[in-house]
Amino acid sequence: MRRILTAGQDALLVETGDLRHALGLYHALNAAMEDAVSANASAGESVASPAPTRPLAAVTELVPAAQTVLVRFDPRKIRPASLAEAIMTLSDTPDEAQEHRTVTVPVIYDGEDLEAVAQLLGISADEVVARHTGTPWTAAFGGFAPGFTYLVDGNPIFDVPRRTTPRLVVPLGAVGLAGRFSGVYPRESSGGWQLIGHTAMPMWDVHADPPAAIMPGDRVTFHAERDQAIMTDIAQQRRTPTDRDIRANTGNSGSGSESTTCDHGLRADRPGLLALFEDEGRHASAMGVAGSGACDMPAYRLANMLVGNPPDAPAIELTAGDAAFTAIGNVVVAVTGAPVDLCITGKAASGADPGHKTIRQSLHRQEAIILHDGETLTIGVPRAGLRDYLAIRGGFKAPMTLGSASRDTMSGIGPAPLAAGDTLTAGTPDPSRSVGRPCEWNGHLPTGTMHHAGPQAIGGADHPVWLDVTLGPHDDWFTPAAIGTLFGTTWRVTAQSNRTGLRLNGPQPLEREDTRELPSEGMVPGSLEVPGSGQPVLFLRDQPVTGGYPVIAVLTLDALALAAQLPPGAFIRFRKAGESAMAASGGQDISHPDEHDGKESR
């Protein structure tokens, strides 16, 4: 039976029961989405229309998986209940007559586990190859890395357990088996699949359309090749540019690569711990690519608003501050996010003196500021919080990958992290946009360096940061005691945290009531996943597209932005979304009476 589960404020997880119906629903949703957007356009409604007349026009992304389809939507345009009703009207019966692309993958069957797989299946190695190549496979859904696609419906003999101990290094192009799946590793990574061969055919190329060689719905045939028969033209081989390639080709070049003339922008004198191009992110999860984008989205948008940019203009995300940038030409910039000391130094023109005088100016709020040519903006270490956003009027010019300039730190997609000496070119500002009003720093963020903070500080053990969540989609996989532990525990952010997610630690692990293995399914930023240890992981913007552990709850969008400002060592508590609003209104629920508040729709 189909179930629709809540997965945060902007997503629904549709359970179909098996892969066949999940793919059928995915194709039906995709077609209905395109029809709705086209119909709205014909009726004169734009994609940005605040309330499209057709519910599925509000859908922003679909993530098919083993037994589910994750449906992400714009909560400003539709209520979850209305979208759920529209989804329930769609058929999930696969269209056998649907046209499919055929992809042939040449393979040299020399994998380290080929003989072991043959023994597990009780056949010869030659028979493994014959059966692997003899039946076409179906590309089901994207996986843990860009270009990795889970393949299904091969020869029924293939049901192979993963390796007991995963390899630390699986080479690029390795062809493997796991359970009833087959797949090709698009890059070198760790992995526990049984390796039976390798291919020289690239699985991912950002310059191709689409970048993934295999897309969901494709028919994939493996063809056995002899090792000595393979000849590769390296110059023509599809490949993903390295960080050095990206920096050298975009004008953000450091001292070690060719520079591009820039008369309007910034020079990165000291980029700090981590400085990345970020924007509102990308929509390419079907290819295994995370959305990425600015971790603290409200702070990022505020920076652009202050300098008069469109809200989605590329900006620089700084982690832990300690950075300095020098103006090339006269520019307008703004710094927002974590409260931080800002200082301008340099030579300023003097009306009384035809020469120049040295200036030093400190800034104490979030505002647009003019940097004159040669002046340096120094950004200190945050007094509270963790991440800041540096915007420039006109936006930074940065290379786009799949429609976004964002750096995905997990997959390596997007421009390289900034290095000292990089030149950052500004785009052309929109003269119709004015700068925004200054505003004060957020005074409710945790202390920036928690190891110096006492228990009374914000984010300390006695004053944890509260994060609002909605339960689900799989809170019913946990015991009632575990739900109590989730909300009753003060959790600590460990040092094993980054843009991908925050590893949390508490005195009591979360106990599962349902101990089945969860088939891979889509996840959203803010998901609180619980692995076997029972210690939750809170995913941020560079989260995996799919996961194999149950998600007990998802942060609200406001809480997700707050979580992006949590430094290692901070203490946090979770509470159900709406509890703080009820307290503020004297205990009354002030949510909209028609809001979808159930666990699921059937």
Structure description:
The protein has about 600 residues and is an alpha+beta fold. Helices cover about 15% and strands about 30% of the residues. The strands form eight sheets. It has a seven-stranded mixed beta barrel. The chain has a six-stranded antiparallel beta sheet with strand order 20-19-22-17-14-24, with no helix packed on it. A five-stranded antiparallel beta sheet has the order 3-4-2-1-34, with helices on one face. The radius of gyration is 26 Å and the shape is globular. The relative contact order is 0.12.
Q: Short description, anyone?
A:
With 602 residues, the protein is α+β, with helices and mostly antiparallel strands. The protein is built from 9 helices and 34 strands. A hairpin with a 3-residue loop joins strand 3 (59-64) and strand 4 (68-73).
Share of residues in strands? 25-35%
Q: What is the general shape?
A: globular
Derived structural class: alpha+beta
Strand order of the largest sheet: 25-32-29-30-27-26-33
Share of helix, binned: 10-25%
Count, helices = 9
